[in-house]
Design a protein that fits this description.
Blueprint lengths: L5 E8 L2 H16 L4 H22 L8 E9 L2 E8 L6 H7 L10 H8 L2 E4 L5 E7 L4
Antiparallel strand pairs: 1-2, 2-3, 3-5, 4-5
Helix pairs in contact: 1-2, 2-4
C-alpha cells in the first residue's frame, strides 16, 4: 500500500518574519520524524530558498511581494517548490560565475547542489524546485 502524500502550501508576504514562519511551519509538519541529518539538510534547503525569495526575489525584500512555498512528501522523497513574485534572475550566469569567498552571501546555488538530490529553476528564474531523497529511512 502506498503511503499517503503529505502536502504543505503556504502563500505569504515577502518579509523575513513570514520566511521564518514558513520555516517553522515546515519544521513542525515535515521534520519531526526524520533522522537529524535529514532534518538539517531539508531545513537548510527550505530556509535558503525562502530567504532568497524574500531578500533577492521580491524587489530586495519589499513587503509588497509574495512568496509561495509548497512541499510534497511521498515515498522516500520530498519536493519543495519556492516561488516569489519578483522578476527572477539569470541563474545560469550566476552559476557560471560561482560565489565570492570574500562576501557574506551568494552561496544559494552551492547549497542547492550540495544538499538537494536535484534542483531546477523555472524559465523566469523566480521559482526553484528542490528534490530531496531520503536514504536510510
Amino acid at each position: 500500500m502506498k503511503a499517503p502524500r503529505q502536502e504543505l502550501r503556504l502563500h505569504l508576504p515577502a518579509t523575513l518574519a513570514a520566511a521564518s514562519a514558513i520555516v517553522a511551519e515546515f519544521k513542525q509538519r515535515h521534520l519531526q520524524s526524520h533522522q537529524p541529518a535529514h532534518a538539517f539538510c531539508i531545513e537548510l534547503l527550505v530556509r535558503e530558498a525562502v530567504t532568497n525569495a524574500v531578500i533577492h526575489g521580491c524587489c530586495a525584500g519589499s513587503s509588497e511581494g509574495t512568496v509561495l512555498c509548497v512541499a510534497r512528501r511521498r515515498q522516500g522523497r520530498l519536493l519543495i517548490w519556492v516561488e516569489d513574485s519578483g522578476p527572477g534572475f539569470d541563474w545560469r550566469t550566476r552559476k557560471r560565475r560561482g560565489s565570492d569567498p570574500g562576501t557574506p552571501g551568494g552561496r544559494g546555488l552551492e547549497i542547492y547542489e550540495k544538499f538537494a538530490t536535484r534542483h531546477r529553476f523555472n524559465a523566469k528564474g523566480n521559482g526553484v524546485a528542490l528534490l530531496y531523497r531520503f536514504e536510510g529511512e
